[in-house]
Amino acid sequence: MDGMFEMAGFTVRDLDENLSFGSVVEGLDREALTDESVRKQLRDLFVQRGLIVFRDMEPTARMQVELSKVFGPLKDHPTTTTPRDEETGDHAEGVIDMHYVPSDDVAKGEGLVEMNGEVIARYSPWHFDHCYNDELNYAGVLRAPINAPVGGRTGFMDGIELYRQFPRELRDALEGKNIIYTLDTRLSRMKFGVNFTPLTEHSTTPQLLKEAAKFPRAMHPAIWTRETGEKVMHYGPWMAVGLEGHEDPEGDRLLDDVAHEINRLGQGTSAYWHEWKPTDMVIWDNHRMLHAVEGCDAKYERQTLRTTIKGDYGLGYFEDGKKVGEVEREIA
C-alpha cells in the first residue's frame, strides 16, 4: 500500500515510507464502527499491514473495547493476578490495566533495570503475548492514558520483515524448531539476549509465581508460514527457556545469538517505536509481531490499558498435552 487514501470518511496512510508494514488511520469515530463495510475494510487492512495506529480516538475504555471487537471477540487474561480496568464495569471485556506509579523509594520501583548506564523502569524485552499458553491471542489493542515525557515508547517488530532481514545462517538454524516458554516474567531469570542488569523484579508477586508453577511449559515454532504465504520469524526472547529437543549448551547458544540479533534489528527497519499520545490506540497482530517497551525514568508515572482479541494460529501446545482450559481451571 502506498500513499494516503480515504475510507468512508476516515483516512489511511502508510505508517512510515521506510517500513514494509503498518498503517495510520485518522478520523475514525464510534458511529463509523457500526458500519459493517467499515469494519471489513479495517480487518482487511490489518491482515495486510499487521499494525494499525489509530489517531485522535475517543480516549475511553468503552471506545477501546468497541474498536477491539471489530477484529474479533475479546479474551480475558489467563492469570487472576493481572489488574483489570474498572471503567468498563465488566471484567469479561478483558481490559487489563498496567499502571506504574513511582515510589518514594526508587529501589522498590517496578521492573527496574540498568541499561547503557541509566536506571529505567517498566522495561519489557522483545516478546509476544501469551507465549506461555498453548493458544495465542490474535491481537492486542493498547492505549496509554499516562506516559512519561521522555522514553516509554512501545516497539513493534514485524516478523515477516525480520525473517527477510535475518542472517541466513541463524535463520536456517531455527527452521523447523520449537521454542519453549514459561510464565516466569522475572527479568532476573531471563536467559537469552540479555542486554541489561536487572535491579528489581518485574510485576512479580508470590501469587503470580504460584500460578506460573501450575502452567506447563508451552511450545511455539520459531518460524511459521502464514496462509498468505509469507514466512514469519516469531521468537520472543523474554520468557523463552530453551529449544525443544536441544536443552543443552548448543541450543542455548543458538537462542542467545538469535536474541542478540533481534535486539540489534529492533533498532532498524524491522521495527517501529511508537511515541504515545493519550488519544492513540494501536492494534498489532500477535501471531506476526513482537513488541517491547523501552522503559523510562523511574520518577515518571506510566499507564497502559490493553484489550486482547481471541484467535489462535493452531501451532502451539503444552508440553504435557494439557489444554489451556484445563490449566485455567486449575489456577482459578
Describe, in plain words, how this protein is organized in 3D.
The chain is of the alpha+beta class and 332 residues long. The chain has one domain: Clavaminate synthase-like (Double-stranded beta-helix). 21% of the residues lie in helices and 27% in strands. It has an eight-stranded mixed beta sheet with strand order 1-2-3-4-18-9-20-5, with helices on one face. A four-stranded antiparallel beta sheet has the order 8-19-10-17. The longest helix has 17 residues, at 249-265. The radius of gyration is 19 Å and the shape is globular. It starts with a strand and ends with a helix. Mean pLDDT is 87; it is low at 77-85 and 88-92.
Spans where pLDDT lies below 50 across 5 or more residues:
77-85, 88-92
Oligomer: single chain
Number of domains: 1
Q: Can you tell me the overall shape?
A: globular
The number of distinct helices, counting runs of at least 4 residues, comes to 7
Radius of gyration from CA coordinates:
19 Å
Strand order of the largest sheet: 1-2-3-4-18-9-20-5
Helix-strand topology string: EEEHEHEEEEEEHHEEHEEEEHEEEEEH
What's the CATH C level?
Answer: Alpha Beta
What's the architecture in CATH terms?
4-Layer Sandwich
Could you state the CATH homologous superfamily?
Answer: Clavaminate synthase-like
**Beta content:** 25-35%
Distance between the termini: 45 Å
Q: On the 0-100 scale, what is the average pLDDT?
A: 87
Predict the CATH topology.
Answer: Double-stranded beta-helix
Return the structural class: alpha+beta
The counted number of beta strands is 21
